C-alpha cells in the first residue's frame, strides 16, 4: 500500500504535485492525502502574492500612462483605493474559488482524501493533521513562504506595512520610507507613488536588479526617479529605526537619517516551515537542505518544493519543482533514479507599474562571460522602436546574448511588453535556436521591431 501525503495542497507547488500524482491513484499509488489549513484556501500566490499585486499595479499603470500622455488634457483622476481593493478582492475571490474547486474535485476520486487541518511532523514520515495521524511512504512539503523581518535594532518597536498590508490598504500615508528594493519593492513602489505617497527608498548597492547587467539597474533608477518621483538612496545600509511623534526615523550607516510617516517593509520572504516540527522528521532546514531532486537531505521519502525550500521563490519555479518532486515520488516507487531540476533562468518583474517590466531569460552578458562562453551582445533602445513611439512608452532597452555559433543564449528587456516577449524568448533559448535561422515574426506581434532588430543585428555581428 503506497501512501503519498502533500502538505500545502492548495498552493501552486502543492497543486502541481497533486495534479501530477492523482492519475496514478489506484495504480502506482493506493492513497493520496492532501492537507491544507488555509482560510480562505487558495494558495499564497492567489491570495497574497503575484495575482493580487498585479491587480493593484494595473491601476497604477493606467494612472501613470494618463499622467504621461500629452494627448490627454486636464487633471489626472485620482486613484480610488476603495475601488482598487474592492476589484482586487472580487477577482481574487473568484481565482481562489477556482483553485479550491480543482483541489476538491481531485478529492472526489477514490483513494484521494482532503484534510483541512494544519499539519506537523511527529516522527520520521509520521504526520499529524488535527485529530488525524498518518504514516505515509512519501511526504511532499509545499507550505510556501512568510514575511522576512530583518534583525534591525528598533524594528520590533515600530509599526510597519508589509506587502500584504499594502494589498488591502484603502488609505495610505502621505510619506514613507521603503526597506527592500528587490522584486517586491520594485513592483510596489510605483504603485504607492502613483497613489500619492512621497517615497524614499533605501538600496544597499549602487543599483537594484542584481541579476541584470548594470545598464538595466541604472535605467530603472532613472525611470523611478524621473518618471515616478521616487528618491532612491544608494550604497547605504540601515543602522537602526525608531518611532517618532510624526512616524518613523530610519538611521543609515552613513550618519544620515530619513523621516517619514510610515515604514514599508518589502524585505522579502522566508520559507514557511516553522510550524512543521521538522526536527521530528530528522530535517534541519539550514544551508542547502533540499537538493536538486527536491529531496530533503537526511529524510528518506520527504520532498520539499516551491518557496518552502528557499531555493528560488518564484511562481513558475514552484510549479516546475512540484512536477519534478511528483515524478521523483513515482521514480522512488519504481526504484528508479531521481530527476534533478535545473531551470532556464526566466524571471519577470512587473516594475514601472507594469508599463516598464523587467524580464530576463537565460544568460545575461555578465553570466555568459562568467561561464566562459564565447558570445556577442547586441542592444536596442526602446525609443528607437516605432511601436513604443506610438504607445508613448519610450523608456528602457533590450539586449540579446548570442553564442558565436549562433545559439541564442539569453535576453533581457526593461521596456513595454518585456513580460510578453519573455515567453517567446524562453522557448527560443530552451530550444537552442540559431539566431540566423529564426523566421520572420517568430515573436509577439505587438512588439515586432525590437526583437527583429536584435536578431538582425546579432546575425550581422556574427557574419562580421
TrEMBL record:
A GO molecular function held by the record: oxidoreductase activity, acting on a sulfur group of donors, NAD(P) as acceptor
Domain FAD/NAD(P)-binding: 3-322
Domain Pyridine nucleotide-disulphide oxidoreductase dimerisation: 355-451
Signal peptide span: none
Family annotation (InterPro entries): FAD/NAD-bd_sf (IPR036188), FAD/NAD-binding_dom (IPR023753), FAD/NAD-linked_Rdtase_dimer_sf (IPR016156), Pyr_nucl-diS_OxRdtase_dimer (IPR004099), Pyr_OxRdtase_I_AS (IPR012999)
Key words of the record: Disulfide bond, FAD, Flavoprotein, NADP, Oxidoreductase, Redox-active center
Keyword check for Chloroplast: no
Cofactor names: FAD
Keyword Ubl conjugation tagged: no
PANTHER family referenced in this protein's UniProt entry, alphabetically: GLUTATHIONE REDUCTASE (NADPH), MERCURIC REDUCTASE
Stated family: Belongs to the class-I pyridine nucleotide-disulfide oxidoreductase family.
Protein name in the entry: NAD(P)/FAD-dependent oxidoreductase
Organism: Haloferax litoreum
Amino acid at each position: 500500500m503506497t501512501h503519498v501525503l502533500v502538505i500545502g495542497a492548495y498552493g501552486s507547488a502543492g497543486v502541481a504535485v497533486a495534479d501530477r500524482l492523482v492519475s496514478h491513484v489506484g495504480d502506482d499509488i493506493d492513497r493520496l492525502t492532501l492537507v491544507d489549513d488555509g482560510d480562505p484556501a487558495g494558495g499564497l500566490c492567489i491570495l497574497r502574492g503575484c495575482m493580487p499585486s498585479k491587480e493593484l499595479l494595473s491601476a497604477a499603470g493606467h494612472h501613470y500612462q494618463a499622467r504621461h500622455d500629452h494627448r490627454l488634457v486636464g487633471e489626472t483622476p485620482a486613484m480610488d483605493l476603495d475601488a482598487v481593493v474592492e476589484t482586487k478582492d472580487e477577482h481574487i475571490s473568484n481565482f481562489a474559488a477556482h483553485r479550491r474547486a480543482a483541489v476538491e474535485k481531485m478529492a472526489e476520486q477514490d483513494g484521494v482524501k482532503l484534510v483541512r487541518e494544519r499539519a506537523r511532523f511527529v516522527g520520521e514520515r509520521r504526520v499529524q493533521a488535527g485529530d488525524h495521524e498518518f504514516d505515509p511512504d512519501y511526504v511532499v512539503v509545499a507550505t510556501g513562504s512568510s514575511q522576512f523581518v530583518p534583525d534591525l535594532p528598533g524594528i520590533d518597536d515600530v509599526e510597519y506595512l508589509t506587502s500584504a498590508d499594502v494589498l488591502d490598504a484603502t488609505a495610505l500615508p502621505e510619506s514613507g520610507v521603503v526597506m527592500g528594493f528587490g522584486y517586491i519593492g520594485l513592483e510596489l513602489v510605483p504603485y504607492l507613488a502613483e497613489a500619492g505617497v512621497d517615497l524614499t527608498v533605501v538600496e544597499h548597492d549602487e543599483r537594484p536588479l542584481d541579476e541584470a547587467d548594470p545598464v538595466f539597474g541604472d535605467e530603472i533608477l532613472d525611470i523611478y526617479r524621473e518618471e515616478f518621483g521616487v528618491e532612491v538612496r544608494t550604497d547605504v545600509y540601515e543602522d537602526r529605526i525608531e518611532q517618532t511623534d510624526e512616524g518613523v526615523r530610519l538611521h543609515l550607516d552613513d550618519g544620515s537619517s530619513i523621516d517619514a510617516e510610515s515604514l514599508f517593509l518589502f524585505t522579502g520572504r522566508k520559507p514557511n516551515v516553522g510550524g512543521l516540527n521538522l526536527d521530528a522528521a530528522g530535517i534541519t532546514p539550514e544551508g542547502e537542505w533540499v537538493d536538486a531532486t527536491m529531496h530533503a537531505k537526511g529524510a528518506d521519502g520527504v520532498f520539499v518544493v516551491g518557496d518552502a525550500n528557499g531555493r528560488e521563490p518564484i511562481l513558475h519555479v514552484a510549479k516546475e519543482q512540484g512536477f519534478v518532486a511528483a515524478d521523483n515520488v513515482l521514480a522512488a516507487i519504481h526504484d528508479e533514479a531521481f530527476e534533478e531540476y535545473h531551470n532556464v533562468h526566466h524571471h519577470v518583474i512587473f516594475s514601472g507599474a507594469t508599463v516598464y517590466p523587467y524580464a530576463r531569460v537565460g544568460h545575461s552578458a555578465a553570466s555568459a562571460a562568467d561561464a566562459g562562453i564565447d558570445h556577442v551582445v547586441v542592444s536596442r533602445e526602446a525609443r528607437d522602436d516605432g511601436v513604443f513611439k506610438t504607445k508613448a512608452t519610450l523608456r528602457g532597452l533590450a539586449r540579446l546574448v548570442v553564442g558565436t555559433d549562433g545559439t541564442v543564449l539569453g535576453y533581457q528587456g526593461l521596456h513595454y511588453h518585456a513580460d510578453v516577449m519573455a515567453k517567446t524568448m524562453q522557448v527560443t533559448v530552451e530550444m537552442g535556436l540559431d539566431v540566423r535561422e529564426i523566421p520572420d515574426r517568430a515573436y509577439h506581434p505587438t512588439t515586432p521591431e525590437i526583437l527583429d532588430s536584435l536578431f538582425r543585428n546579432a546575425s550581422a555581428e556574427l557574419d562580421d
